[in-house]
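Quarterly update, task 2.4: 7,8-dihydrobiopterin-bound model.
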Amino acid sequence: MKIPRAPDTVKHGAAAGDAGRPLRPDWTVEQDWETYTQAEHASWKTLFERQSLLLQERASSEYLEGMRALPIGPEAIPDFRILSEVLMRHTGWQIVAVPGLLPDEVFFEHLANRRFPAGNFIRRAEELDYLEEPDVFHDVFGHVPMLMNPVMAEFIQAYGVGGLRAKALGGLPNLARVYWYTVEFGLVAQAGGLRIYGAGIASSHSESRFSLDDPSPNRISFDLERVMRTGYRIDDFQETYFVLDRMEDLLALDRIDFAPLYPRVKALSEVQPGVLLPTDRVFSRGTGAYHAGRRAR
Ligand code: HBI
Ligand code: FE
């Protein structure tokens, strides 16, 4: 249990403000690093150690390089002020503390200005494998190493700018799929085989194995329009992962004018998450066994 230190701060993980209204217009709060308990630092350590071990052989070189250069270790939940200093020097990004999920416009406005909103709370010890809202482990362990990479730094900012526009054009659901299948659940082909760069995978013990090692999911080449047509699962492992040939391919997306794509993609049929198309370049065709088993139960 934490005690708010100032009138403008809220307990870690508490909904911001009365009746869900934010205390600041940009929804940021103080991280209140000094008020994390030993139990919360211990949860971080458990998550950090088991995930670092798994990612050694599974994460992309960009992720591992970013992590090596950051003051992120097992002993304590990182202090956002210190992370921001290092990030700012490398790619001009900062980390700001938020109490949980933000409204789309608020989220995009932060990204467009190279501020990454990170949850300041950590999942409870009883739910280390599952959480509904992005916590400090997902946001810091999953996202921050990739924000050290100039390609990802550029791409996420462009997503923020594009998100504000997509909303006006009615294209947000399609654009959100691009973020989902890259920034959150992306794989990249590297010398040793497929590797993880998506934060949703990198911060998940079970999905970091499932995404690379399990025969169930499809792994196919990233294609922008294909991704924009493809629904995704928020409640379980992905049925399909999209693979970049190299991280630099994300930069091409910055130069694309998405406006004409939204009506074009909407005119095409939706693709269900587990379905393969004849035009897909397939790295591995999934058996679908995992999700078939879930549906049967
Ligand atoms: N807020 N804190 C936070 N983190 C997210 O990843 C996030 C969000 N709000 C909206 C959102 N993501 C997505 O729905 C958009 O990318 C579309
Ligand atoms: Fe995320």
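Highlight for this quarter: Residues 150-169 form the longest helix (20 residues).
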